[in-house]
Specification:
By secondary structure, this protein is an alpha+beta fold. 41% of the residues lie in helices and 14% in strands.
Length: 564
Amino acid sequence: MKKKLRGVVALSLVMAVSVGLTACSTTKEEPKKSGNATATTAANVKKGKVSVMVYDRGLIPASEGTYDNNRWTKWIQENAPFEEVKFIVVPRTEAPQKMNMLFAAGEGPDVVANYEDMTPFISKGQALEITDELLAKMPNYKKTLDKYPALQKLTTVNGKRYTVGTVSPVSPNHTAVIRADWLEKLNLPMPKTPEDLLAVAKAFTEKDPDGNGKNDTYGLTLNADSQRVLSHMFGFGNPEKYAVVDGKLTFVWDRIQDWLKFTKQIVDAKVVDPDFLLDKGDKALTDFTNGKIGIFLTGKFSQLNSPTFANFKKANPTAKLDTFDLPATKYGTFEGYINGGPSVVGFINAATKDPDAAARYINWLNDPKVSDYLVNGPDGVYKKRDAEGTVVVVDPAKNKIEYDYATDYSIIRTFDFNLGSAVSPLANEYYNSYLKSSDPVLQEFGDLYYKMAQVVNKPDAIDPRKWQQTLPALASDTLLKKTNGTKAVDDYLLKALAQPNLTAEKAVADAKELWKKAGGEDVDAFYNDYYQKNKDKMLSPEDFKQLKMAPELLPSAKKNSKIK
């Protein structure tokens, strides 16, 4: 197979991690059995207790139990080398608030595994430093850390480690999804500039693209996720609004002003739901699913969201979806949130009574066989590997009940299963699995996801948020200034979107004063000073470029693809 790799690091990464997403090799050594589950081969000496965070996403069927008591937690209880593993359940939609409450009350879990911003916990001294001595008790995790310099950068700040991370293939998250059938009907080109994007949105709003004779469609979404995707167009992310400009780490007020000006044009053109400020995401999804929105800027169609696509197709059987690069601006070419590469996925509670137990739990999760089981389940039950090495779903209906809710028990994991060179490094990309399905809807989603993967794996597709993961934790007084200032600025800019008589220039000038009043300039000075002293040790777009690989369809997947 012809592979388009970018550097030796990319080859090393993809061979290691692509198979890790869905590793169920039929040739691998069979671990010992424990009841109906597969146990790790390590001697399971039951010693100590540990508490662990898990998200509640509201997906678990009543027949399966609860997020702290189900078939997966029981397997962990039975096979982990602990007398007890206690799960602390945190609602996904309220995770930061709930975590703050738990830690303030002294009830935080020993091991935090999540996707939230962890720097506030480090700043407050709530994350335990992972010393070399403690790291030595996590040999499975240390192998990954030693293998990928980018992960070393990510998890080391000011020469100290406070977080644990993982490395995974680069894949789409927040992308632009568009009604290709509406483009065809209205004879419109795919948008390539911000002006094109606005023009297409206006046409989708005003020219009755669904042909029902009613004025009941909108051009695009503008919920919170969509606002963030649009901010990426102008080269800044959230919550950090910094970029390197002329060799300095700078709060990018000029980019914010241009983003606000463009977004206000969208609002003023009446091409979005006028109640967008009240939308937390569900209404935008519902409206798009019901065929009332032409461009969806969100992560609802990323890797594991084929049910969302199926719901869309059920409501719009003849509709066609496509994706496109975010339009370039004078600040460069950027993309929405990109999954993969090095990511922070957890930390150890500084108040834990047994740091060794917390370290042993992280190490146990990074055992390849444990990661394999928690990602895929027992061989052949939920997934199986075909002749080309692609892992495919065995029974979607069964998975929906017993498997789909369980993804967060393996947030901390290894992707390096060492299945051997006979396994294609691309075999486990989701688009291949979807395209090999006998379900034409999943096949169609496979094509869409393949196109999204092509977009994010372009060498110069930059997620402006990613590299800022290595910004340092702030001292408590500076953190308070940042927290108060950020909230004041974000709240004001959001209100400015809905005020037609308030110009972007005036709104940004007011926001600057709010930032200054909160002490934000001290935050700016601290961050730039840190950057000047540590820029060679911080993540950069180049670190992510080296981890990308051009997607490629396997032969049997290509047979079902409609892409010419």
